[in-house]
Amino acid sequence: MKMTFKAALFDLDGVVLDTEGQYSEFWGQMGREYRPDVPDFSLRIKGQTLRQIFDAWITDPAKQTEITRRLDEFEARMQYSYIKGTRAYVEQLRQQGIHTAIVTSSNQPKMENVYRAHPELKELFEHILTSEDFQESKPSPDCYLRAAASFGVPIQECVVFEDSINGLKSGRASGAYVMGLATTNPREAITTLCDEVIEDFEKMRN
Q: Which of 33, 94, 145, 167 is spaced 20 to 30 Å from 41 by Cα?
């Protein structure tokens, strides 16, 4: 990475955890059932909070209740594996005195499932910001600006790790240095939205 930075801000799904394929399956099914008129529904909603998805795409309260129920059941069964090299890289950053935070559109109920699988996350990351912690979801830069402020670090001295189009736009709009992970979208689809592209974190360690 051609810079020095004081804080590393990580999206969760598709960046820290290898879960985006599972979410693509779930939201692809929801799109076919509830919004068959919207092509690539699962890609369009990536990086957005559940509330934002409902407000923009599925406004019927009964449908929202049913989708929420099905999502809760799905997340309770999901596999929460790390993206290759993530844990070792974050541990290295902490040893170097660099602040670390997760900045995710996921809500607290989903995170409880994650913590059961990975209780060490609360030690790996100093701060974990969820959808309850910010008013505007990605692609707004609000979440990353709040994360930087939580450390008292200028956003220009932060690096953002993102995979989704909405997340990359959020990081770029914040003014941070943006590393794109080609885990959800192909490299060529995200190159113009970030400063560098990586496949995973294996080669990031010194």
A: 145
pTM above 0.70, yes or no: yes
Q: Which among 141, 139, 113, 111 has a CA at the least distance from the CA of 125? A: 111
Query: Which of the four pLDDT bands, split at 50, 70 and 90, describes residue 1?
Result: low
Q: Which residues contact 60 (CB under 8 A, 6 or more apart)?
A: none
Torsion of CA 100, 139, 201, 8, to 10 degrees: -20
Rounded to the nearest angstrom, the gap between the alpha carbon of residue 153 and the centroid of all alpha carbons in its chain is 20
CA-CA distance, 191 to 182, in Å (whole number)? Answer: 9
- Of 188, 178, 182, the residue nearest 201 (C-alpha): 182
Cβ contacts of 76 within 8 Å, gap of 6 or more: 113
* CA nearest neighbour of 162 among 137, 145, 139, 179: 179
